[in-house]
Write a structure and sequence with these properties.
Number of helices: 8
Strand content: under 5%
Length: 171
């Protein structure tokens, strides 16, 4: 009988809940040529900015003069003391070297970690040097360090990058 045939068929597998499907979609590995290219362009942009700092001598201007007043950010950002003047003057050279290595794809995660640490330190050490794109460089460097900047990432990583740019340009 037809009724017996229907009963013998197993129920179709139920797709997961909406949250499970959304989570699976966000955590799905993807390969993004755009993220790969973005990391390389980001490294090149920071290398150019570092060369500009070296050429202008702004580190010597800001940190080479003894007893110069350095404004700190305060809560919630940490107040960091500047290094010795010679170390502060050398910081842009480290930024140029690591950013150049990121731009050509040599050990991107390690170099991004060093680059982001140096850039963030430079950003936090003196509030008088605050420029909006310095803050953006620190955020994007941390983001690219966490995602690996190899072009292989989760779908959620691309959405977070899009969200960062949307907030910057819409805000």
């Amino acid at each position: 009988p037809p009724a017996a045939r229907v009963a013998a068929v197993e129920p179709a597998a139920q797709p997961g809940s909406r949250i499970e499907r959304l989570t699976a979609d966000l955590l799905r590995p993807v390969y993004s040529h755009g993220l790969f290219l973005f990391a390389r362009v980001f490294g090149a942009a920071l290398a150019v900015d570092g060369v500009t700092m070296v050429r202008s001598g702004e580190m010597a201007d800001y940190f080479g003069v003894k007893n110069r007043l350095h404004f700190s950010y305060g809560y919630p950002l940490p107040s960091l003391p500047p290094l010795r003047a010679s170390a502060m003057i050398a910081l842009p050279y480290i930024i140029v070297a690591t950013a150049g290595l990121v731009s050509v794809g040599i050990l991107p995660r390690l170099n991004l970690a060093i680059l982001t640490t140096c850039w963030s330190y430079l950003f936090l050490v003196d509030a008088a040097r605050y420029v909006n794109h310095h803050y953006l460089y620190a955020l994007l460097g941390a983001y690219l360090t966490l995602t690996g900047a190899t072009g292989r990432c989760r779908r959620a990583h691309l959405l977070v990058l899009r969200l960062q740019w949307t907030v910057i340009y819409v805000h």
